[in-house]
Amino acid sequence: MPGPHHARRRPLRLLAVAAAVHVSLVVAAGATFAAGFPASETIFPATTRAWISISDFRGLQERFDASPYGQLIADPAMKTFIDHLREQVSKNGKQRLAKLGLTLEDLEKVPGGELAAGAIEIEGGRLATLVLVDTTGHEAEAKELVERISGRLLEQKAVKVTVPNAPPQLTVYELPADPNDVRSEGPARQRRVAFALASQALLVGDDALQVGQALSVLAQGRKDNLSTLEAYVAVKEQCASQVPATAAPLRWFVDPMKFAVAYRTSNPPREKRKGPDYVAILSRQGFDAIKGAGGVVVLGDGGHALRHHSLVYAPPLPGRDPDSVERFDLAARMLRFPNAASLAPPAWVPRDVSGWAAMQWDVKTAFESAESLVDDIVGDKGVFDDVIASLKEDPDGPQIDVEKDLVACLGQRISVITDHVDPIGTDCERLVIAMEAVDEASVAATIAKVMEADSDMQKIDINGQAAWELIDHSMALPKLEVETPGGAVPHVDHDEQDEAHRRRQRLREKDEKLLPHSTVTVAKGHLLIASHRDILERVLAAEEGPASLASSSDLTAVQAELGKFVTAGTSARGFGRDDKSIRPAYDMLRQGAMPKSKSLFAQLLNDMLGDGKPGSVREQRIDGSTLPEFELVRKYFGISGLAMESRSQGWYVVGLSLPRSPQQGQEEEQEVARRPAEPSNR
Fold first, then answer.
1. DSSP-based three-state secondary structure for 288
2. ω into residue 423 within 30 of 0, thus cis?
3. Could you give the CA distance from residue 665 to residue 635 in angstroms, rounded to a whole number?
4. Rounded distance, CA 149 to CA 96, Å?
5. Does pTM top 0.70 for this prediction?
6. How far is CA 23 from CA 26, 92, 293, 294, 297, in A?
7. Which of 48, 98, 109, 413 could form a disulfide with 44 if both were Cys (CB 3.0 to 4.6 A apart)?
8. In a domain, 272, yes or no
9. DSSP state for residue 595 in the 8-state scheme
10. Chain segment 586-615, per-residue pLDDT in tens
């Protein structure tokens, strides 16, 4: 019998699995593990825009419990935090699932086989939600759940309504309008919940028609189903063979552009927003060439803590050569990532960094394709050409030909190095972006012109290497205001002639938000853009040999495992030490300072979860004060890697996570001793 702590952590499994796979959710077809109904992809209609399925829910639970992620949650040191997090997850889950009368705990107790959910585009371009659960062996629990759903809806003052010609198993409730759900666009939305309990199956959704149709095809599936879509078939053919029958996979599929459009239609903003409509812009610029993405995630298979396989399906336009730069139209031509025979860290990448990634990108084609995208975003044709022309012709500018003097001198490889310094704080994370320079001298000369024409960049010397550092204006002295008899004296030069400068400064502050202490140089055959001077100093001082990441055993182990699944050339590779990568966010969460962090991840969270007001800091939603010291849980975090292969039909991606080995643990202790301390704004 499971103990009480085992039961206590069950509601967190879905959340923890999702967190473990973060960017890596991926679809493989598979046989159903129970006889409640055919595979859910044959029941969901072809208008399904997003779909996720756990084919063997109980099997995935067992694999999760045995994985490092399950062991982390079960660690007694995590008990207090997990209990607190459970309360918050339950509360937030109820807020979201309450619209269907469900809770996270419900979805844990009922499945006997597959659990699937999807977003279906219906009349009017809106999305309808459908949850489908195989209740084989859990019919009694399913019946009790139906009664609880009815009770919860009645508590919300819902009224049972009659649907003409509906099957007897279908129950429909209509809820009163939400007074807090005031939208800037569109009429008030009708709120309904429909559910049906069939033999070995439970269906719940917010559209009675979709629930009824799914119920009617539950035994045999439908002809116009999700699995007939061209994009779904391509994903299935690529990913299915990578998953053993006993893997208990998590599968998913999404049509990104159609989902984005339908989601926006279904969820109009509460306040009318100004600015570009990026969904419409991407569609106009040819990015709707991406027809679908999907894949499969498995836990504990082949010695991997986690592994995922995915495919982004983007075939060339009809009649186009898949290898041509004209494979897509307009700005979508940027999506050109040539494969390379080998992708490995250069010798100058320090051995002890948190992570490294590299991508092959056709920079020249991307530059040539940027014009229509920039003009579309700005809303004024010719803006891109004007900017490029001003850089060349403006007597106060750098007077460079961007295409000839810079773009033509760059290669196709772009690398990213990530790390942090101790002690952990709001400005402890480090980043270096390295762009390959095929003509280093020309790139260096061009960058020097650009930097010298920028009053916000100051030239510095790093061991004989010229570099430029962004001036920190945060400590700038305030302007002196002198009061005189009869009132203040206005300064004309602070008015019209300074307004243009102030606008440029505000724009610059916005552009430099992500890299407020950036330092730039050209060295080691690359244009190097660093978040801080100290990480650039480390890169410039790095030497080939034992001090290089390329010689580390954990990188070698990850590359070897990836080589089992991607044998041809690759257009992207990545490597990460999960403990080092997660530690800054972990400790900032413990300190309650995550919203104040200046890392890219934290700023992204602030943009997504904040109130949108400039300069405001969101409230941290999770209390991390009860988290144990990181060293107590470090052992649960291993190493991870990713590889992407460009193909004629899109991009195939494989990612995996490996447990820590004793040798890697010993290397970690040595590297911790060498880790730089005392973060600075340099």
1. helix
2. yes
3. 9
4. 14
5. yes
6. 9, 22, 12, 12, 11
7. 48
8. no
9. G
10. 998 898 877 776 655 555 555 544 444 555
